[in-house]
Design a protein that fits this description.
- The protein is of the alpha+beta class and 131 residues long.
- The strands form two sheets. Strands 1-3-8-5-6 form a five-stranded mixed β-sheet, with no helix packed on it.
- The longest helix is centred in the N-terminal third of the chain and has 21 residues.
- 15% of the residues are buried.
Length: 131
Amino acid sequence: MLKKLLIFAIFAFVLSGIQTVYSQEPTRIQFAKGKSSATVKGSTGANGVYYVIGAKSGQKLVLTLAPKAKIGIKVETDGADGHSVLLSEQQGGTYEIGLDANGDYTIFIGSTNHKPLPFTLTVKITKLTDV
């Protein structure tokens, strides 16, 4: 009986650790007063990290991710039309995304080899201009 209880306790502990890894709450990126950009430095960890930023229709999201190699970025939103993936790239660099809805946008940063990788992400919001 003690052996079964011990096995159950170990299983519950492992399961809670797995749930924590996959249920990570995104970190909200906020700009300093009067600023339209912010820089975040971090590490992808083994499973990547999530950020969220609020923006409005008619704005442009400009993301600059370094390094360029061994890292990926994805931007998603859940809007009136459902879930949308706005960007999915397997490398760092600078990306611009025109926004057509008010709301929160989720940014995922992950290493492409599932090993922790330090990164720098600069997020800038500007007015979307017609081309």
